[in-house]
Structures are given as structure tokens and as C-alpha cells.
Fold each of these.
Amino acid sequence: MSTVTQWAWLIPVFPLAAFLVLIALGRASARTAVFVSTAAGAASFALAVAVAAEYVRGAEDYTYEGPVWLRLGDTALRLGFELNRLNALMIVVVATVSLLVLVYSAGYMRGDPRIGVYYAYVSLFSASMFGLVMSAHLVQLYVFWELVGLGSFLLIGFWYAKPEAKAAAKKAFVMTRIGDAGLLAAILLLFWNMPDHALDFTSLHNAFADGRSPVSEPMTTLIALLVFLGAVGKSAQLPLHTWLPDAMEGPTPISALIHAATMVAAGVYLVARMYDLFLASPEAMAIVAYIGAVTALMAATVGAVLTDIKRVLAFSTVSQLGYMMMALGAGAYAAGVFHLFTHAFFKALLFLAAGSVIHAVHTQDIREMGGLAARMRTTAATFAIGALALAGVFPLSGFWSKDAILASVLEKDVLLFAIGVTGSFVTAFYMARLFFLTFYGPRFEGGGKREPAESPAVMTVPLVALAVLSAVAGFIEWPTGWFDEWLGRPKGHESAGWPVMMLTTAVALAGIAAGWALYGSRRAPRRGPVGRTSALYRLLERKYAFDEIYEATVVRPVRTLAGWLAVLDERTVDGAVRAVAAATVAFGRFTGRLQNGQVQTYGVAVLIGLVALIAVAAGRGIWS
Amino acid sequence: MTATSPYLTLAAVLFCIGLYGALTKRSAVMVLLSIELMLNAVNLNLVAFSAGGWLPSLAGQTFALFNIAVAAAEAAVGIAILIAFFRSRGSSEITDMTTVGGGRRRGRAQ
């Protein structure tokens, strides 16, 4: 049955080959780069769909254990890959968004002199993401986890001439590194404690199944929390979320691919993959759920006041990832994964549509936009679909997934449900605000910019494709329950009841109405409900001052310490080295005086030598 | 037997004075002078051993005569070279008689 699946290892190989080819070509022509990368992306996409189709038809989980990679005492780690239903779903998501972004980038990045490098990095990232998803054991996953972080770093800092881009790339890498340290600690703890030191997912599943655990309860919680720390870093949850808004310095297609659909989903994927571990520790699940919920609400409130279109979407991503974590923490595995699936599509759509707008008006500040709906019809329409999906309006995909989350959470904990519903309202509100300020209202006279026109087809076709997916992806749930059963976890609750559906729809429509009232209608003041100078507004605008707090508590002490260490290095260590060098030079200079071309000096040397010789001879009693 | 020690002592002292002069004097003429002094000290030594000492014979005195002749010839040649050098270089200081740098300039810091 698994005839195509055994070729699944090719899925990461195609983009990897594209990366190597493009690196080898160096300053490749734009056409070559686009062609090579897109061809690889298309090949991966076709194969991914074929593999996923097999799994939809009910294929068995497939693990391939390849050559031994690393021997550690008695155990050996092998290279290999694994396919199961969760994987197959993720692969399709990654492949679809990757392919669409590759096509879109041909238009967005046209004219950039380093486009060959750009496509090389995107291919590297794709290969790493596929490898991460298909990894058979934790160590291999960790390798790809870091590679994905590298791809993100390279692409955020793509326009490295901009100091903000460089700073953002470093910030992203360092902050996710903090999470990665947690994940590494978890891997080490598991390695010590697992029977046979096995780290592959099958063994982990067997060891932790049914709530058992090979280690004590506190240790299980610790390991789960360390794994979650890795996810917090990668998925930009509180408190490691501040890198994601800054990551918007990178090109917009990258924001769509990496920071909306794939890399940030890797954290959610990790928790889902290690779900047995989490199920064995209720305390860890609770922490996951609450961090997710608080992140969801907090990020949504910040998104309501920002003026940079990409940063609003970045905080939206943080918020939606919070919803996924909340779902997973509350036991709603299928709902969380389902939301990951739908979110990838509509968030990528929103980012690419924003990119289309930015491409047309050359600004990211929504205060400088307005009235674009008439000129950019396709972009406006697809953005609207994405926004409605995000807000959770029936019958788009976001409605189904968000509803599934809220319904599951309601059974678990009413507080989480309340936070989730409030977050929904704010989500709908800020998306409405974004949409109306960008596309409607009076056109801001921006001072001699080119007349904004609709983007070329190579950019709008992906938008339409993603819009279609955002609209229909929700129907994968029909007939109800199929998706959850397929993913292998019982739903744990009956399908969302009508009251919840009505409530969530009402909340979403209320948010949109509020947004329309304040920003969309003709007499709208186009200003927020809170005054500009109020303390609340300022707090939100500064994103709850997280950056400032980190600057004061972490960055400055580290810089000071680094300064002291630098002085120590300069004075003591370098001083010792310089002293050795100086001594050598001085010795050389001193003995060099022997060779000064003066006969009398040489005569003295002869005399001294002769006297020494006589003394030695006399001392020995031998007359030589 | 004639006591040889006083003669040997004198010869040694003269030799040392001559050696000192040869190694430290700046003027080339003084160096040649010192060399002559060393040769004369050697002559004294030879004659002293020819008279007293371990195997008295006439060979010592003969050697000393030859030495005087050689010293005279060598002094003449030395002066000739010195005059030629002075004519070309314009100085008769030992420290200038080198093509390697670092003679008189040694005094300044590098």
C-alpha cells in the first residue's frame, strides 16, 4: 500500500538540490533561480499530495530507518524518516504554501540583484522544514529545527544593508535559541531516562502512552515544560514573542512562508508530536493552555493599535498560535491541529495580500493608505476573504477550526473559554480595522507616489488560490468528526453545539461591526476608541513594553558583563600574548647588537670565546 | 737562571693594554698602534723564554727578530690601507669601516 510513501524522502531532497544548485551558480540569473526553485517546489508539492492521499485512504504509519548516523555507547541514532497522518497533513500544508510563495516571489522580488540568493535560502528553508516534519527521532528533529532557525535568520536579514533587518535577524535567532536550549535539555533528560535511550517517536509514544511515564511525575512535567519552552521560542508565545514583529523586516513572502505558515507552526507541531508526553503531565498541559490563552488575548489587543500592516499581521499570528497552544493544552488535539491547517492558508493569504499592497504603494503604514479597493480589486477581495476567515465567520475555514477550539475549551475550563471569546472579538475588530483603513476611506495623498495598480498575475494567482483554500479548507471536517478520528485522537467532546457556534459568530460579527463603525463607514472617525494619549493606548502601542523590559533586565546587564569581559580579554589575555611578543622582540634586538658590522665587536667576541675555551680546557685538564 | 716571571708579567700587562686598545679605540691609527704594542709584548715573551724558562735556546730570539720585521711590514701596509680608506671615505674611524648599518647610528633608538 505504501508505494509512494517509500519515496517520501525525496520531498526534502528536491529543495535541497535546488539550494545546492543555486549556491553553486552564485550570481544566477533571476530566471534560472526562479525556475530551479519553483520546479523543486512543484515536485515536492506533487509528491506531498500523493503521499497525503495515501494516508487519507488509510495507509499505515511508515518508518524508514536508514544508516547509522551517531553511536553513543550502546545506542545508535539512525538517519531516517517517518510518515504518519499528522506528518502527511503538515507536509501538504508546507508544500502548498511554499509553492505559492515561490511563485509569488517571482513578482515581488523582481529586480532585486540578490534574487538568486533569496531563492537559494527559501529552498534551504523548505528542505529543512520538510526534514523537520518527517524526522523519525528527536535528535534529527532538533537538527532540522536549528536549520529552520538558520533559514529564518538568513531570510529576515536578507536586506542586510538595513540595520533594522540585521538587528531583527539576530534578535530572532537569539530568542529562539533560548527556546532551543530548553528543547535540548528535554532531549538530554529523555535520553537519560528513556528505556534503551531511545529517542524515536515510536518509542516515546510507547513509553508515555495511556498516561504512564518511565520517570517520576515531577520529571515528566519538567521534560514536558522544557519541550514547551522550545515551542514557545519557535512559535513566538509569551514571553519569547518579541522577535516575531521585528521579523517583519524581511521580505513579505518570507513573512508569509516562515512566520505565518510553517516555521512558527513547528512549535505547535512539536507539542502535537510529543503529545503523549504532555498527556502524562496534567500540570504541563494546564500551563500550555494558559500561556496560549494569555498570549492569544494579549497579542490581539496589541494588534488593534499598531499602524504597520505587517506588524498587525505578526501579532495576529502570535495570537492565533496562542489559540492553537490553548487547544492542545486543553486536550483538543484535533482542534489545535485543524486550526494550524486552516491558519496556514489564511494567514499566508493575508501576508501575501499585504505584500501586494506594499508592492503597489511602497509603504507599510496603514495611515498612508486608503481607498485601494477600487484600484486593487483582486487583492482587496482576497484580503477580505482572509480577514473573514481569520475572524471566524461562517462558512470560511477559520470559523470551523476556531469554533472547534472554543467548544473543546469550554468543556475544560470556562476561564479559557472566556479569554478565547474575548480574543475572538478583538481579532475580528483589528482585522476589520486593518481592512477598512487599508482599502476604504479617503485616499491619503502620500506625496507624489505612483498611482497604485493591481499586482501582476504571478502575484495575484497565488492570492486567489489561497483564498479558495481559506474558504473551503474548513469543509475537511465534513462529515463531522472524520478529521478528528483520522488524526487518531478521540475528540473528547461532541461536535460543537449550536449555542457555541451562534456565540462565536455573534462575537465575530460584533467585532467587525465595531471595526466598521470606527473605521469603515463614511462618517467614521478613523481613530481608535481610546484616545491617543491615554495610558492604555500608550501601553498597547509599546506592545506592553516587553521590548523595554527585556532591554533593561536582560540586554543591558549582558552588555555590561560583556564589556567587562572584553576589557579582561584585552588587558589580561591579550596582554599576556603581547608581553610574550615584546619579550621575543627585545631579546632579538639585544642579540642583534652582536651583528653590527664593527670589527672591534667581533674581536671582543673572539676574545671572550677564547677565554671560555681556555677555561674549559684548563678545567678539564686537557690541552686541546 | 734568570728569573722569567717579571718579564712575563710585563709582557702580559703590555699585551692586555694593547688588546684593550685594539678593541676599544675609535681612531684607526690608535688601533694600529695597539697592535704594535701587542706584537712587542709578544717579542718580550719570546726573548724571556729564550733566556730562562723550560727549554732555553736561541730560537726565541730569532723568532723575535722575525717578528719585528713582520710587524714593521704589517704597519706599513696597514697605514697604506688606512690612507686609501681615508681618501675614499673621508674618515679614519673604525666605526665607519663597515657597509652594514648600525655603526655610529647605534646610539639612536631603533
Note: Chain A touches chain B at residues 589, 593, 595-600, 603-604, 607 (CB under 8 Å).
Amino acid sequence: MTAIIATTVFGIIMMFTGLFVDNKKTVSSIAAVLFVALLGINIMELSDATGPALRSMTLSLLGTADNTNGAFPQLLFNNMLRIDKMSMWFGTAMTACTALYILLIGKEFRKVGTHVAEYFALIFFILCGLYILTAYNSMLMLFIGIEIMSIPQYVLAGSDKRNLKSSEASLKYFLMGAFSTGILLMGITLLYGATRTFNVTEMVPMLHSESLNPLAISGIVFIMVALGFKVSAAPMHTWTPDVYDGTPTAFTAFMATIVKAGVFFAFLRLFHVSFGNISEHWLMILAIVTALTLLIGNVTAVYQQSVKRMLAYSSIAQAGFMLFSVLAVSSNIAWNGIILYGVAYSVATIGVFAVLVKMKDYTYDGFNGLAKKNPLLAFVTTIFLFSLAGIPLTGGFMAKYYVLLAVMHQGNMMWLVIFALLMAAISVYYYFRVIIAMYFKQGDPELTSEVTMGDQVLLIATTIIVILLGVMPHWFLMPA
Amino acid sequence: MDIYSILFWFLSAMAVGSALGVILSRNPVNSVMFLILTFFAISGHYIIMNAQFLAVVNIIVYAGAIMVLFLFVIMLMNLNADVEPQKGMMIQLAGVISGGTLFLVILMGLTTAKSELIDTKSSDIGLISNLGKVLFTKFALPFEISSVLFLSAMIGAVVIGKKEHIPASEKAEIV
Amino acid sequence: MHLLLLTADQNTPFNYFPVALQLVIAIGFVAVMMGATHLLGPKRRTKDKLVNFESGIPSVGNARQPMGIKYFLVAILFVLFDVEVIFFYPYAVNFRFLGAEGFKEVVLFVAFFFCGFLYIVKKGALDWED
């Protein structure tokens, strides 16, 4: 909760930094410091030693009485937020990913346009939405959280104004996003009509399997469609390739990773906490959506010629795997599964994008011969792609293992698990095409900027994180 | 048939009719005008449900401000050329079938729903004083947090809408 | 008339009866006038009559010119502050009831908006000449 306020304040600081500091390098440095500070605040709030005091201090600063003594779970602001250990853990993990993203890709913002400070401010605001989505306890907060995450993304998508594709991406994303927000609101309204409450936990006793109000079930389906749109699950995925392709690469890396994981956490929270008791009414629909997402994402990715577009389809395919954690209603490892998957997927994808922004040519041929020109770049890209494909000893393998295991515990979805394994095998093909281009083809790839010492250190650190996620996944999971 | 029912059916017919006008009229300016009519009809519904504040806000914000924005957007476009692509018959048919199916399913769902929770006439819940009491006590956090939304919208307007002045020194760096 | 007097003190939809009446009369008056001039006036459809009237001189160019984005920027900023003002209305009605707590909330909300306003002015988004 301190983090929500801190990220808002930091966002406003960045807004004004852009007005008073002309040098873009200074702006980037200030932003990097603020992101690391935000991570520090998150860790402080998470830790048992300093957390309660920090939360009490923030509450007294706001003039609200603290009736929980800073202990978890905290029900705050008339039950609008429910902050527990899990949401704090996820928020901290995503903040760490964002800090990594800023350090790796943040300096590329300068190439996008003139409003560098504003881009950082918008990312702070997106994080504010993410924190709300990790801790919402009311449908109203879910809606506001999703909106706070979406609107800055529309702006970031269109930030490269000289590029027609960027404007197209922004317009497409905005129109489709606004439409899906309308569907989300409709779903919330119908659900409110059936349960007479916005509260996520209070509506549970109103939803019985045997006498389920048709209003409720249509509301649930509407919400599922809207959230499925935000995480680009098929058949609501059609905006994803164009938007991810047209958006400046530096921002695609953020939209495809941290934002997506954040919405998935909200998805999981709503469908497990509120609709978990009536899962037989929606589980089959979601299973079909999952199967479609896996199929369309993986099969279409095979036919792409541009690595950036391939990564857009790969993000659809990965969303299919993340949907498994939502499907595993009765499993208690689903929550850890989404945290592990979110982190493993985000770190690996940010790594690939950090290499991609350095490339001049985004097609597969543009990667030809990278291993000769810059062996380090080629090596780290290989590890990141291994992780995305789910090769053992990388984070992607453990993440896939966790989410599939969660569904297997449930017992009735074996066909889907087998289908997912088949699709994972297909995904190896298009990820390995990049590796083959880098190592076994001749060419002279052009880089847009030099790979500095700092870049090398950061890329190696990211690689180590990816491998640690695969070898020591319990380090990243919440201690029980 | 009391006065409520007459008004309800009149406003409903007006809302549905003008909403159809929005999507059926060829001229985008006409579409906007039909949309304004739809908003007025919905405001009428709010008044029947005794939600007077919503009715007024709907007129001021939607029919007033947002529709002006819509007109601006249409004026930004080039209206001379008839560039609207003509959709094929099959696509139209597919749209009608899928949309119609959704409509039927929702209709069936809503007609069989228990609606005893909904009280349309004798409710004071939409009056401005009651709304204010709830908004500033129970829903204070969403109210405050929505300002973050407005801030990002302001940044978005400036980032997207403001003309950029690129100093000569930086031009070389970008290109 | 008695309908109006009966319901004057309560907050019911019938409070809006005079508004509706006025609306009907206003729209009806305009409709009747427009219809009447159309029916009663003489009709001479010549080529010169149907041409757009532009202060008596021949019209030049096309009226459907794309307009500047500056209007749009100002309009969208207007909408944002318009919505802000809307929130004051329910607060003003409950000013006494909400007391110091409500005042704090509104001041915080306005502070956010003031930050945004300062940003817009400093950024020059409202400057017409650039």
C-alpha cells in the first residue's frame, strides 16, 4: 500500500523532472534511481521487520486509523484493498522485473521521442495500476486498476509519432481496449445485479452452484472475455500482433511482460476467490479458450518472418500456459505457479527484447552470424530463448512444470496438459530458428548502438537469474 | 399502463432506434447526432429511475463534452473521399449471426433471471446527496485513485497531441 | 396543475415534469416553425439558389478542411477538468455531513489535478502560438 502511494508520487516527480531537466541522460538516471527506490520500498514493506511500521506510518500520514497493526492480511479503505503476503510478493517480484527492464532498456527511450520523462512517468502509473490489481478487493478497484494500466499503454504505443505503424498500433489498441473495457463493465454490472455487492469475498455466498442466477453466469463470461482480451487469449488476441509490432520496441518489452503478468494475477485472484465455488460453470469455457490460445499462438508464430512479430505470437502462446494457473481452481500451487511463470517469462522476454532493440534488422535474417560478431549477445539470447521454449535448467521449464502440475492435481484436464506439451514442442521450432540464424548462418548483423560494459554485466546478470529460476525456483517462491 | 410504463417504452424505443441510427447512417456526423440522441434517451431513463445526478452528468459530460470531442475527431479526418471500405456479404452475414446469437443468449439469460433484487421506482439511492455520502466515505479510495487516471490522460494528451520541437543538436542523435 | 403542486416537495421523477413540458414545447415550436416555413414558403429551385451562400461572393475551395490538432488538445483537457468539476457537485451538497474528513479527500484530489494543471501550463500545451 505504501508502494501504491510511492509509485504515484514518483510518477508526478518524473512529470516535473521533464519540465526542469533538459538533459535526457540525467532524466534517465533520475528515473533509474526512483525505480530502484521503489523496489526498496516494496522489499521494506514485504519484510516482517520493517513492513508493519512502514504501513502504519503511511496510514497515519493519510490520516486513516490503522486497525490491523500492520499485520497481513490488511483490509484497507473500507475493504477496497486486501493486501496479503501473496500480493506483496507478486508486486515486489514485478517491481524487480520493472527495475531490470529500466536498467536494460531504459536508455532506449531516448530514441523513441522527445518526451522521455513522461514515458517514465507513465510506467510509474502503470505500476500503480499493477499494485491495485494485486490487492483489489472490490470490482470497482479491479476496473480502475485495469484502466490505470491500459491508458498509459495506449499512449506508449503511439509515442513514436513519426512512425505510421506506431500511430496505427495506438489507435487499434485504444479502440479494442475501450471496447473490452465496456464488456468488463457490463460483466461487473450483471454480477452486481445478481449478488448486490462489489466486494470480491462478500459475493461468494451469493453464488451457489445449484441455484445460480443467469445474471451471474453471464456476468462471469463477460468478465472472462474482457480479461482474456487484456491478456491476449484467443479468440480475443487479434489486436496483439499489430499492436506489439507497431509499438516502439522499448515499450513492447514492457507491455508484453509485466503488464500481462499483472492482469493474470488479477484474473487468477477473481476466478479463484470469487468464482472458485462455481467453477463447473466456467471451467470448460476457459479450457477451450486455453486450447485455442495455445494452438493459434504457437502455430501462427511458426509462419512469422520478423522476430518482433514472432515474439508477439509467442506472448499469446505463453498466455495460454499462464491460463493453466487460472484453470487450476482446486490446486494450492496455482498462485505460486503464476508468480514463477510471471517472473520467468518476464525476465526472459525482457532479455530477448534488450537484444532486439540493439538489432537494426528485426527479421530472422538480421540475426545471421551474430555469434561471430558478438558472441556474448548470441549466447545470452540463446539462454533466454531456451527459457521461453521451456528447456530444462532454465526458468521457463520450472514455470511450465508448475502450472501444468497445478492442473494435473485437478485430474480432469489431462487432455489439455498433453495438448500443451505438444504445443510446447512446436514452440521449440520457432525459438530455435533464431538460434540457428545466429550460430549456423553467415551474415554481418548491424547493431544500432554499441554494447557497453554495463549492458554486458546486466545481460549476464539476467542470464544468471533465468538459470537460477530453473535450478532454484524455491528462492523465488513465497516462503510458506 | 401508467405514466412510468409509457415513458419507459417511449424512451427505450428512442434509445434503441437512435442507437441503430448510429451504426446504420453513412455520414459520420449523423452518427454522432444519433449518439447524442441516444444519450438523451438514456438520461431520461436515469430520471425515471430517480437517479437525477447521473442524468445531469450524462448530459453535461457525454452529450456535451465528449460528443464535441467526437465531432472534432470527425473534422480531423478527411471527409471528402468516400474511403469507407465496403464489407463483403459474407462478413456482414457472419457479423449478424454471431452478434444475434450473443443477443439471444443474453436475452434468454436476462428473461429467466431473478429480478427481485432490483427496485426501480421507490429508490432514493440515485439522489445526489446519497451518492455524495457514499462516494466520499465508502468509495473514497477509488475516487482518489481515479486522479492517477486523469494524470495519465493529461500526459497522454500532451505526449500525443503536442507538436514536438526538436532542437537541432538532438536531431542528429535521433535519425 | 395539481400534479405539479403535489409532488413539489419530494425527490421523484415527477419533479422533472416542468422540464419535460418545456422541452416538449420548445421542440414542438421549432418543429412547427420549420415545417410551416417549408410548407408555406414559395419554392424556386434554380442553380444559383442551391449554391452555398458565402457573403455574396463565389465560394472558394472546400468547406471540409481538416482542422488543427490544437483545438483537439484544448478540448480533451477541457473534458478532464470538466469531469473534475462534476465531482465537486456531490461534495458541495454534502459539505456539512462530510466535515473535515471529506474536505481532506477533496483537497487531495484537487492537489493531484493542480499538479496536472501546472504540468500542462509549463509544458505549453495551452499556448496557441508556437
Note: Chain C touches chain B through 47 residues (CB under 8 Å).
Amino acid sequence: MDYLASFIFPNDEHLISENLVLGVSLGGHAAWSCLLHDPRMTAGVIIIGCPDYLNLMVDRARLSKLPSWTKSSPPGSEILGSEAFPFSFVETVKRYDPASLFLGAMDSVSKSTSSASSTKSPGPARDSPLPEPTAKEKEQLRPLLSKCLAGKRILNISGGSDKLVPYHRGEVFLTWFKKAIAADGWFGDGGVTFEDIIDQSAGHEVTANMADEAIRFISETLAVGNQGKERRGSVRESKI
Amino acid sequence: MTDPMKTLDDSDRPAPTLVSQKTYAIAGISVTVHGLEELHSTTKNVACLWLLHPRLASQERMAGIAASAIGDWNSNPQSKSTKGLIAVSFDQRNHGKRLVDPLANEAWRQGNPRHAQDMFSVFRECLVGWAAYKFPSSMAKVLKLIIRSRGHGERYISTHGLSCIIHLPK
């Protein structure tokens, strides 16, 4: 991103005034990462990607019957720290992955506050709904969410019958996230626009409907431009 | 894993009108820029859409989406009055022309014991190398110390102490 303009517009014929990202599958996971960690990336489309890498991959380890999963009792209890997920790797994921980064910020508060034992620590398998963050956790999360996502526009498209990257692997995080960023959510003033679209009959594939939604979203994003800078967050859910 | 783009190829969605493609070698990576020739010379601002392909694919698989997005935006009068659109595709690490080890792109079931690490490191580092690497400010302080103690080399630390590009001599 640093060099593109100097190669393609050597005489400064044009100015790259905004950057958007669209990724599919592996590229979809990547798109989340670009959105979070590059302030220049102001909008993104994630197609069949997942915002919760550990939750996705730990489940894939279970389905693959990895020795790292089956050898412990109960199975899977020692998957983090096994050869499949060395702790050094888990630490890296926690720095960059959306769910691990944001929910990890909650964890660090609950660890340092003795009275916060009511906050359920999200383990490797996130299957039950997460509580709304406490006031102290929000204090921790607000600057992080602002830095990573404030004012950005995101379209997340999933396949309802996707078995490789199932929607439910990211669902716990997404539900928590949507509650936070919605217009009436505690981070509603962050101005995040989020669309969560599920193509119900689709597997791990890009359908024509998904492509239509992606193109529609990109053109809308370009048309909106900076007009929405002061807007509140918004969440739209749709099943197609 | 079957190619997730195949469904789109096989669908009855009308094929987009082709747009121009130009290839550049940027920072050692072959980069295809879509839609350059279609830009209006009078439109200063240009938005750039970065396209990231699926595992086991390569940048060519994203050309259809590039053409669709650019064609759609260019049919809007705003593409002339406010900003143009280009799209960029490139091979992800260990994919396409950047392939180093085919097994590293495979899953556990296909015999790759490092599937989790391989996939994450490939996609997480997708734009690094051209995007300035972001360090937490505490890390930037550590790096400043290291650079000072080495006392040589090109270095740059932004005023925010967040972005670092460091080239130390061998």
C-alpha cells in the first residue's frame, strides 16, 4: 500500500484517496485483519471468512480428529499449547484476530479485577453468548475499537450451509460485536457500519447473489464518501 | 477444498465487461492493477480495491470481481465527478508464482501438521512488505533504543512512534 501510487501514478496524475479490501475465504480472514490493523483501509467485504480464527480452527482440529485433540481427557482440553496450536502462536493470534483481540481485552480486565469472576472467560471453544462488557471492560475496549474500526464500513457475507468455515464459528463474536456497534449499542458512537448477510443455501463458495451484494456494497461505499463521518453505527442483518 | 470461485464462474450471472489490466513488479511482488485505462484524466481522486484470493487459488481468480466492481462504479456518474476506482490483485504468500511449499497450503487432513500456523501467517502478512508494519508504541520505544545502540543504518520512525521501516546493513 505504501508504494502502489508511486508505481502506477509516477507523475501524481491521480491520488489514491481511499482503500477498500475484498477477500474470499483465506482472503476473507485476511480482509478482517487488514480492516483492523491498517488505518488506511476504511471499508471491507469479507466473503466466507471468519473473524474468530481460534474458534474456527480448534473446531476444525476436532473434526479432523487430530492427535492433539484426541489424546487428552476430555478430548480437546489441551489443544491450546499442543503441536497444532503452540502457545507462541496463540499469542500471535491474540494480537491480530478480531475475536481474540477484542475479547482478549475483556479477559485482561477480568484477570486484573478480583471481583470480575462473573465474567465468563472465553475459552478456545466459544459456543455460548457473551455478556455485555462491564464498565471497566468498556473502558479498555473503547480505545481499541476506535483505533481499529471507528467509522469503517464492513460487509460480512457467509454461506448458511458452509461446512469448512461455518457461520456459527464466528457467530458468538459477531453477536457480541453487533450489539456493541449498533446505533443504540455502547460503541454506537464509533460509527461502524456493519452488514451481516447469510446466503442460506450456499456452502463454502461464492454465489452470484454474494457477488451482487459485494458489488452493491462497494459502489454504495464509494458513493457515500465522507458524508457519513458523523453518523452513528448501524447493523443490518439479512438472509438471502 | 474445492475452488470457492467456481460457483460464481458456473452461475448465470452475466459476465462483466472486461477492464484493462496492467502488471507491475512492486516490492518484489507481481501486482495486477485493474481499471487504470478506464480512469478519467480529470478525476484526481481514485479509490483502490485490494482483492485477496482464497487458499489454493491465485490472483487471476479475482479478475471477475475486479471487472464487476469497476464496471458497476464506472456506470455511476460520480465515477467521473468525484472519484475513480481501480482494483489490485496479487498472489498471496505461498500461492501462484510465490509458491514455496505446496504442503503448507494444505489442511491437517491433507497431512500438513502446521495448518493453523501456515494459514494465519500467510493471510496475516498479506499486505506487510508494502504496508508499514504497525508496532505498539512500547515496541517503537524498544526499536528506537536498538537503532540508537547500533548507531547506523537507514531508519525511520514516524512522529507517532507507530510505524517503523528499518533497513539495517548486514
Note: The longest strand of chain B covers residues 45-52.
